[in-house]
Every structure is written in structure tokens, then in C-alpha cells.
């Protein structure tokens, strides 16, 4: 007899706006407090204290325009946030400060979340949708130098880039970019040459979100239709469809694979969070707590497995925190 | 009759006279069925025989020319054969020209498509005759485009003329079209307007097809006119006329009696269907199935039985529905409400009665906010449900709105449809499903070897529905059908009389007797149905009288759809009003109506009107007979 799905461990209230992005920072030792960063539609970034379940700080840096991406850059004192004011802001939060140290004007009015990759000590690459419709720009941070601009060939008709993921096989190897586009295809870009390695049409509708497991060279993408698509990368850097999984209700907003690559979580338009096993995409659980679209899911980076958490932010202004499958 | 071949110089005029006289006496079939095949064979390659044949027909005296030409055109197996047989007769002989270009095309319409093809093909095959072809086309278009012709000529004739136009168009070549382009365009515009104005769907469709064909011929590049209409056999046949096969496709002549059918079979019947190009499927390499070597986990799934499709809940109370439909921005909820409304109304009659008029108002004005399948039907069913739940106030509201300002035609016709559907529902007994628990209403008998306890049958049937039944020892050989009071009785008048009241009072946006004859036609048909459904109600005699006066006022209306409605009203009245009432109160009116009906049977151009009038006369006869057989 299967157990009924668990309830959230706790629920964070207080954003008073739809939550669009979440990012955990729980890796550091005591006395540092495990933290969760959340970006909301009213332009605030809330820094949640996961011990007290309260907001420690609220950051206002995007002119009350929706914040749709939040990432930490090596520890919780440096934060990157992206908002609908067409800016990416870099924050310094050490010692209680809340100041924007730098910002990048992206000139992009879309919703594509940027992707951050640490390539060396104090050097990051950030990929973001550029001003022109189909282009992706890769910058180096903190220097803000452009590394390359990825333009699809004329007539490719890919549409807007919808989601990005920068990755490298291991430290020191070539960084690569996976981009999901409006026409439903996922493209693997070669950053050094600015050319396409491989393109795969995974969906009939825009790719809403994707995530990639570089160890297994397997990735998963979700769209506004009822299908999840799992694809793999072979040695020739070619993308191939591995499997598809049909969902009960259409619409996926976010997919994320847990850092230990055992399970993955999807956030859906049908207000539900689904957990699957990553190996075979076995459906494991359906978490039904929210009363509106779930916009984002994120796994925590706790060092101790048993403390790992899953957070989901929704249009109903709540962030639910779950402790699920923590025994492995 | 056989000809002597050879170089004899014989006079053919005698033969012409014989042929002419035989044809004019009506023996075309006999003589031409032998003559024409022989001549076809003989003239196939032999020029001399061709000239002999031409002399033959040219020498036929004028008074018999029509019969001969008609016979030849009907019997020739193809346009090229006709050309060989008749030569340039139409150019040389005035009478023949009249028969071919005027009489057969414009004054008669009994000929088959094959005959038309022969005739027009014949005209197109020689340069001398082509001028006639263009003249013919112009005259056909004039008739096609004249609004009085569209209104007053029978649909069969209109179809015939349309076919002729299409065949002419198929024969015209580029330069000829260029030369008469402007005239084609003007006549097309005028013609399409009168056709679309008609109430009969068949006429509208003919207009659309011809207009499309003309447009495609004159605009070979660039956008062409395209209408939307239902494709059926008639449409396909008409469209196939636009394409001509080359003459050698025609089946060689066989000594067969029905040549026309052969000619038919030789013509292409269907155009190539548009092959839709399949959109290229997205490139997806085959899925590989990797064998997973390590066993999958110790990750135990949770119970996911609650994971079902997300359904937006519709409101449960009628007043909530009203709120959602009038104000709500939430489109999902709006959709769910529209879908659930009818059943809610039927389940909560008391609650509906409190807000019935408001609900009717909202539904009448409800526009489609999102794309729901079957929106029109859902709205109509909800309206019918509201009307049947609370007939009198809602009927009052709807009939008053029918004659109000600023409604669209669709809304007015909606009102009529809803009234009819509701009347139908109210006048039929309640369905059997409602009385299930009493158990007695099984529509069929099941006999069983049970003998006694006939008193218990009701209870037992309740308990064991599918199992054994009991014999009804009471001797009931038929189960009584479910019966209930006729609910239409109390409200029939409320549906009917307000609709009749203001038909002659024009408003600024609505003039039943003027432009809006489409709505008038629908109104008349609605009244006919309401009359029919009012059988056995108390108000039926008064309704009959009012309806008869209404019909009398409109009996000379020019639109055939309206006239058909008026005649159906009379049928309904004759069927519904009890005979005694008819004959007591309405004798003079009935006599007047009878003479009008006789007139319609003889003189009305529309076939359906004539048929309906004949039916009415028969009904009246039956009434009289019934009276005579009833013992006084």
C-alpha cells in the first residue's frame, strides 16, 4: 500500500506577491544560517532564514519589476539577480550590507532566466538572452566582457530562447550551452566557435525549462504541452531523444535535478509538484499543496543528506518546503 | 432510310423535308436514333458526307427547323459530332440560331447537362461560331444577374442557367476573356448580390459557385473570390463543369440507344481533390532504449491516485452563475459555468424561477469569450432550460425583445429558435426516466410463469429490476404510456400572440416587411410550428384565427421562403384546430383561403410552394369528407 504523499515541512509566507525564483544557500557551516533566496513579482528579493522561517532581509533593486532569476556566486554573500527591468544586478551581502555592486543592462524584455557557471576562481560565465530576438549572449563576470554572441543561422526560426544552461564536463573543460527555444527545440552551442553542435526538436510547444546531468550526459526538458522529453548527448555531441513521459495535465514551468542526481522535481501549471526518479523517470510522488501555478522548484545544497530540502514557489504567494527522499 | 453512296448528284432537299416533317410530328426519337448514328459514322472522315449532312439540315424548312435542330442536339454523342453534323448551320440559318442560342438556353430548362455540353461545345468549335458563344455568355450572365429572375424563376431553371454559364466559361480562351473582362466583372458583382440575398440556401450556393468560377477565370493571378459552402454532390458536379476534356476522350459511337448516358460517362466527373501537403513532422531520431544495468532504487513511490486531470469547478448555485457570467474576469470559471448552466437550471427550478428573466437577458446577450466547443448549442440549451422552467415571464421578455431596437439578426432568430424548442419540450409528456421509482412504467412487457400476487408487482419490480417479472393477472395487455398534463397548454398563447402582434410596425433597425425578409421567413415558420404544437390546448382556436388573418395579409409576399412558411402555417392550422371550430367560426376565411391555394397551385413559380398548397387543399378535402361521414 503506497503511503499518501507527505505534507510540506513548513511553508514560508510573507512575500505578498507571486514567487518566481528560488535559490538555496545552505552549504556553509555553523554559525552561518541556512538561507533561501526568493525573487517575487513585486521586485523584492527576500532572504529567508530557514531556522526561524522568517525573512531576514528584503532587497529592492529592480525598481519593483518582477525578479525572475536569483543565483549565488560562491557563497551567500554574493548574489546575482535578474529582473524585468532589463538588468542583471550583482549584490554584496556580506556583513549585513545590501548594496548593488554592479549591474548589466541586458536590453532584453523576455523571461528567459540567465545561467551562471563558475569557470575559475572568481570568474564566472553568465549566459542570457540578448537584445535581438533569437540571440544569446555570454558574458564573463565580474569583468562583463562579452565572450560570444550565439546567433542561430538565418531561417532557423527558433524563436526566443526560453531557458539556458551553461555546463562543463569537469573543471577546466570547454563550457557548453544548452538552450531551449520557442519552437520546441533544444540546441547545444559551442561557445568557442559560436556555432551549433547539435539541435533537437523535442516539443511541439515552447521549451519552458530544462536541466542537464553532465555525468550521465542526459537532460530533460518540459514544455507547455503534456510531455516531458528526456534526451541524451552522445560522444559526437549529438542530441538524441531518449524517452518521453506523458503527464496528466499540461504545462511545466520549471524542472530541476537534485545535485546527487537521484531524483528530479517538476513544477506544473496544474499547481502540483511532481517527483521522478532520474534513472528511469519513474514517477515517485505528486505533491499537491499550492492553489495556483507553481513557478519554480529548487533543491537545497545541504552537506548532510538528511537535511536536504525541496522548495517550491508559486503564484499563490507561498513557498512550500518539503523534505522528501532524504534517506539515500 | 439508307443513303446511296457514290458520285451521284442527288437532291437532298426531299430527304430534308421528310426528316423535318417526321420530327415536327413528334417522331424525333425514332428517326433520329437511326439517322444520327449512321451519319456520325459516315461523316467521321469523309468530307463529302459531311457536306451532304450540312445540306440536309440546311434544307429543312424553317417551320420544322426547331424540331430537327433540337433532336440533333439532344442525340449527338458529343460536341464535335454535332459540329460535324450541323456545320455552321447556326450562323447561316436564323431560326436555328434562335433555337440554339435563345430557346434552348434561356426559355427551356429541361435539358440534361450532356445536352448543354454538346450545345456549347458545338458553339465553341468553330471561329465563326465563337462569336455566338460570347454573345450567349453575355445573355446568360444578364439573366443570372437580374434580381427579378433570381426571385421569380424556379430553382431548377436557375441551376440550368448556372450550369450553362460554367460550361461557357470553360470554353473561353484567354484573349476572349480579356476582351469581355469588364462585363464579366460587372455582371458577377450584380449577380452575386441578388443570389446572396435569397433565402433559399440552394440559390445562395449557386450564386457563390458561379461567382467563384467567374472570378477564377478573370483573375488568373492574384487573389480570387472564395466562398465557404458545404460541398456535396451537386457542388462537385457543378465544379467539374469548369474543366473540359479534350474531344478524343469521348467514347467511340456504339450502336446503343442511350447515347446521352454514354456522353455523360465520357466527361470527367471529379476534379482532383486538393492534396494537402503534409507538414513535415519534426525531425526526431529513433528512441534508443538503453539497458539500465544497475537496479533502480530503493526510492519507493508515494500514493499518486489523487493525481487526476485538473478541472475547474463550476459554481453550484444559480446566482453564482449569474455573477460569473456578468462580471468575472476568470475565463476558466466562465467556461465551466457556461458548460454547467443547463443542468443547474434544470436541477434547481425554484431558484431559477426567482431570477429567470435576468438569466434570460444574460443568455440572450452572451457573447463567446473564449473558444468553447459547441458554444452556440450550450447557450441555446441553457436558454431553453430557463424558458421551460419559468415559461410565462421569460416568454414575455423574449417576445418583447424580438420586436425591440438594436438586436442583431442572429439574436432575433435565436429568440425564435428557443421559443420553438421550449414549446416542443413543454408539449411532450415528461420522459419516462423521471418515474423510475414507481416502477410501473416499463415500456415493454415481460411475461413470466408467475401466477399470483399481482398486487405485489409494483413492489417486486422495484426490488428486482432485472430479474423475474410477474404476469399481470389484471388483464392489462398494454402498459400505459406515461402521461401528464400538457404544460404547453397554459403558455401557448404567451408564446404565440406577442410574436404576431407587431409584425407590421417597422422600427429603425428592424423592418420585417422590408429588408429583413429572412427573419420574416423564420418568424412564419416558427408560428407554424407553434401552431402545430398547440394541438389540444385551449387557445388553439383563437390562435388559428389570428394565424389565418396573418397569412392572409402576407399571402402575396415575393420571397418564396416566406410563402413556404405561410403554407406550412395553414397546414398546421388545419391539423391542430379541431374541425368543429374550423367550420363553425372560420368558414368564410377558409373558403377564401381555398381559392387562394388553388391559385398558388397553378401559378406559383416555386415547386415547394405548389406542393405545400396542394397538401393544404387535400387536407381541406379530408375535413369536408370527415364532416360528411360524421352522423349529424
Strand coverage percent of chain A: over 45%
Give me the CATH fold name of the largest domain in chain B: Leucine-rich Repeat Variant
Structural class from helices and strands of chain A?
A: mainly beta
Overall average residue pLDDT of chain A: 90
* Biggest sheet descriptor of chain A: 4 strands, antiparallel
Low-confidence stretches of chain A are none
Describe this protein's structure.
The complex is a heterodimer of chains A (328) and B (632). By secondary structure, chain A is mostly beta strands. Chain A has a domain at 21-105: Thrombin, subunit H (Beta Barrel). Chain A is 0% helix and 52% strand. Chain B is globular and about 100 Å long. The termini of chain B are far apart. The A-B interface holds A 1-6, 184, 200-201, 204, 232, 240-244, 248-249, 262-263, 270-272, 277, 279-280, 282-286, 288, 325, 327-328 and B 282-285, 287-288, 290, 292, 294, 296-304, 306-310.
Task: Describe the structure in brief.
Chain A is built from no helices and 28 strands. Chain A is mainly beta and 328 residues long.
Keywords, separated by commas or semicolons:
heterodimer; A: 328 residues; mainly beta; 4-stranded antiparallel sheet; 0% helix; B: 632 residues; mainly alpha; globular; TEL2_C_sf (chain B); ARM-type_fold (chain B)
List the helices and strands and how they pair.
The complex is a heterodimer of chains A (328) and B (632).
Chain A: E1 10-12, E2 19-25, E3 35-40, E4 44-49, E5 54-60, E6 67-72, E7 78-83, E8 87-92, E9 99-105, E10 115-120, E11 123-129, E12 136-141, E13 145-150, E14 161-168, E15 175-181, E16 185-190, E17 195-201, E18 207-213, E19 218-223, E20 227-233, E21 239-246, E22 252-257, E23 263-268, E24 273-277, E25 283-287, E26 294-299, E27 310-314, E28 319-322
Antiparallel strand pairs in A: 1-28, 2-3, 3-4, 4-5, 6-7, 7-8, 8-9, 10-11, 11-12, 12-13, 14-15, 15-16, 16-17, 18-19, 19-20, 20-21, 22-23, 23-24, 24-25, 26-27, 27-28
Chain B: H1 13-24, H2 28-43, H3 47-58, H4 62-75, H5 79-86, H6 89-92, H7 94-107, H8 113-124, H9 127-145, H10 147-152, H11 155-171, H12 174-179, H13 181-197, H14 201-218, H15 233-240, H16 259-266, H17 318-327, H18 331-347, H19 349-354, H20 356-364, H21 375-389, H22 391-402, H23 409-427, H24 457-463, H25 492-501, H26 517-533, H27 540-554, H28 560-576, H29 579-585, H30 587-603, H31 607-629
Helix pairs in contact in B: 1-2, 1-4, 2-4, 4-7, 5-8, 7-9, 8-9, 8-11, 9-11, 9-13, 11-14, 13-14, 17-18, 18-21, 20-21, 20-22, 21-22, 21-23, 22-23, 22-25, 23-26, 25-26, 25-27, 26-28, 27-28, 28-31, 30-31
Amino acid at each position: 500500500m503506497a503511503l499518501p504523499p507527505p505534507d510540506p515541512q513548513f511553508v514560508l509566507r510573507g512575500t505578498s506577491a507571486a514567487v518566481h525564483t528560488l535559490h538555496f544557500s545552505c552549504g556553509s557551516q555553523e554559525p552561518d544560517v541556512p538561507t533561501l533566496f526568493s525573487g517575487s513579482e513585486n521586485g523584492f528579493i527576500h532572504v529567508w532564514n530557514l531556522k526561524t522561517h522568517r525573512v531576514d532581509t528584503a532587497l529592492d533593486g529592480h525598481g519593483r519589476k518582477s525578479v525572475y532569476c536569483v543565483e549565488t556566486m560562491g557563497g551567500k554573500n554574493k548574489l546575482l539577480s535578474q529582473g524585468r527591468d532589463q538588468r542583471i544586478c550583482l549584490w554584496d551581502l556580506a556583513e549585513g550590507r545590501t548594496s548593488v555592486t554592479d549591474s548589466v543592462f541586458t536590453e532584453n524584455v523576455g523571461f528567459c532566466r540567465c545561467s551562471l557557471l563558475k569557470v575559475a576562481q572568481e570568474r564566472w560565465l553568465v549566459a542570457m538572452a540578448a537584445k535581438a530576438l533569437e540571440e544569446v549572449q555570454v558574458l564573463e563576470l565580474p569583468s562583463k566582457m562579452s565572450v560570444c554572441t550565439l546567433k542561430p543561422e538565418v531561417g532557423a526560426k527558433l524563436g526566443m530562447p526560453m531557458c539556458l544552461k551553461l555546463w562543463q564536463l569537469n573543471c577546466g573543460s570547454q563550457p557548453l550551452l544548452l538552450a531551449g527555444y520557442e519552437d520546441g527545440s533544444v540546441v547545444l552551442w559551442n561557445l568557442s566557435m559560436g556555432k551549433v553542435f547539435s539541435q533537437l526538436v523535442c516539443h511541439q510547444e515552447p521549451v519552458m525549462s530544462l536541466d542537464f546531468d553532465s555525468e550521465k550526459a542526459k537532460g530533460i526538458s518540459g514544455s507547455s504541452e503534456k510531455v516531458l522529453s528526456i534526451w541524451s548527448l552522445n560522444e559526437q555531441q549529438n542530441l538524441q531523444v531518449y524517452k518521453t513521459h506523458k503527464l496528466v495535465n499540461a504545462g511545466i514551468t520549471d524542472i530541476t535535478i537534485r545535485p546527487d542526481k537521484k531524483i528530479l522535481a517538476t513544477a506544473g501549471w496544474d499547481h502540483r509538484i511532481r517527483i521522478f526518479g532520474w534513472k528511469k523517470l519513474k514517477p515517485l510522488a505528486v505533491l499537491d499543496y499550492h492553489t495556483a501555478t507553481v513557478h519554480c522548484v529548487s533543491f537545497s545544497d545541504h552537506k548532510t543528506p538528511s537535511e536536504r530540502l525541496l522548495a517550491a514557489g508559486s503564484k499563490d504567494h507561498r513557498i512550500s518546503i518539503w523534505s522528501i527522499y532524504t534517506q539515500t | 432510310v439508307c443513303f446511296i453512296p457514290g458520285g451521284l448528284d442527288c437532291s437532298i432537299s426531299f430527304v430534308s423535308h421528310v426528316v423535318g416533317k417526321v420530327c415536327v410530328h413528334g417522331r424525333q426519337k425514332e428517326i433520329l436514333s437511326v439517322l444520327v448514328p449512321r451519319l456520325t459514322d459516315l461523316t467521321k472522315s469523309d468530307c463529302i458526307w459531311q457536306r451532304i449532312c450540312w445540306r440536309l439540315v440546311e434544307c429543312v424548312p424553317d417551320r420544322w427547323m426547331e424540331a430537327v435542330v433540337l433532336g440533333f442536339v439532344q442525340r449527338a454523342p458529343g460536341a464535335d459530332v454535332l459540329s460535324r453534323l450541323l456545320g455552321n448551320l447556326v450562323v447561316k440559318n436564323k431560326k436555328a440560331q434562335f433555337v440554339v442560342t435563345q430557346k434552348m438556353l434561356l426559355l427551356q430548362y429541361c435539358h440534361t447537362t450532356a445536352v448543354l455540353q454538346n450545345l456549347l461545345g458545338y458553339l465553341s468549335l468553330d471561329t465563326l461560331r465563337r462569336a455566338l458563344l460570347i454573345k450567349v455568355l453575355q445573355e446568360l450572365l444578364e439573366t443570372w444577374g437580374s434580381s427579378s429572375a433570381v426571385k421569380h424563376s424556379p430553382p431548377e431553371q436557375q441551376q440550368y442557367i448556372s450550369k450553362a454559364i460554367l460550361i461557357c466559361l470553360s470554353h473561353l480562351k484567354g484573349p476572349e476573356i480579356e476582351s469581355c473582362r469588364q462585363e464579366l466583372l460587372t455582371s458577377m458583382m450584380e449577380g452575386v448580390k441578388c443570389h446572396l440575398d435569397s433565402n433559399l440556401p440552394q440559390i445562395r450556393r449557386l450564386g457563390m459557385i458561379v461567382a467563384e468560377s467567374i472570378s477564377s477565370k478573370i483573375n488568373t493571378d492574384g487573389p480570387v473570390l472564395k466562398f465557404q459552402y458545404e460541398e456535396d454532390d451537386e457542388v462537385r458536379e457543378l465544379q467539374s463543369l469548369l474543366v473540359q476534356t479534350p474531344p478524343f476522350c469521348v467514347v467511340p459511337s456504339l450502336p446503343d440507344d442511350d447515347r446521352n448516358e454514354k456522353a455523360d460517362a465520357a466527361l470527367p466527373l471529379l476534379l482532383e481533390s486538393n492534396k494537402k501537403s503534409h507538414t513535415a513532422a519534426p525531425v526526431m531520431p529513433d528512441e534508443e532504449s538503453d539497458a539500465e544495468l544497475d537496479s533502480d532504487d530503493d526510492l519507493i513511490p508515494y500514493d499518486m491516485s489523487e493525481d487526476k486531470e485538473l478541472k475547474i469547478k463550476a459554481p453550484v448555485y444559480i446566482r453564482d452563475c449569474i455573477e460569473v457570467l456578468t462580471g468575472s474576469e476568470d475565463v476558466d470559471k466562465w467556461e465551466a459555468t457556461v458548460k454547467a448552466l443547463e443542468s443547474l437550471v434544470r436541477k434547481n427550478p425554484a431558484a431559477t424561477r426567482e431570477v429567470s428573466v435576468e438569466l434570460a437577458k444574460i443568455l440572450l446577450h452572451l457573447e463567446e469569450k473564449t473558444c468553447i466547443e459547441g458554444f452556440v448549442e450550450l447557450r441555446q440549451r441553457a436558454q431553453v432550460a430557463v424558458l421551460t422552467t419559468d415559461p410565462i415571464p421569460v416568454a414575455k421578455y423574449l417576445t418583447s425583445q424580438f420586436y425591440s431596437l438594436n438586436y442583431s439578426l442572429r439574436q432575433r432568430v435565436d429568440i425564435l429558435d428557443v421559443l420553438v424548442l421550449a414549446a416542443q419540450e413543454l408539449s411532450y409528456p415528461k420522459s419516462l426516466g423521471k418515474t423510475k421509482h414507481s416502477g410501473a412504467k416499463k415500456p415493454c412487457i415481460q411475461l413470466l410463469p408467475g401466477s399470483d400476487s399481482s398486487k405485489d408487482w409494483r413492489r417486486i419490480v422495484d426490488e428486482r429490476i432485472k430479474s423475474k417479472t410477474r404476469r399481470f393477472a389484471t388483464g392489462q395487455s398494454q402498459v400505459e404510456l406515461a402521461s401528464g398534463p400538457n404544460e404547453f397548454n397554459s403558455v401557448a398563447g404567451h408564446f404565440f400572440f406577442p410574436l404576431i402582434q407587431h409584425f407590421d410596425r417597422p422600427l429603425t433597425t428592424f423592418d420585417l416587411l422590408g429588408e429583413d425578409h429572412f427573419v420574416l421567413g423564420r418568424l412564419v415558420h416558427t408560428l407554424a410550428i407553434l401552431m402545430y404544437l398547440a394541438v389540444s390546448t385551449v387557445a388553439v382556436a383563437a390562435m388559428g384565427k389570428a394565424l389565418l388573418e396573418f397569412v392572409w395579409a402576407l399571402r402575396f409576399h415575393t420571397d418564396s421562403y416566406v410563402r413556404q412558411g405561410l403554407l406550412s402555417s395553414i397546414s398546421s392550422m388545419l391539423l391542430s384546430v379541431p374541425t368543429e371550430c374550423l367550420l363553425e367560426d372560420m368558414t368564410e376565411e377558409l373558403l377564401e383561403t381555398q381559392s387562394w391555394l388553388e391559385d398558388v397551385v397553378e401559378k406559383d413559380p416555386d415547386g415547394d410552394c405548389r406542393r405545400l398548397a396542394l397538401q393544404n387543399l387535400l387536407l381541406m378535402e379530408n375535413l369536408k369528407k370527415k364532416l360528411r361521414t360524421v352522423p349529424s
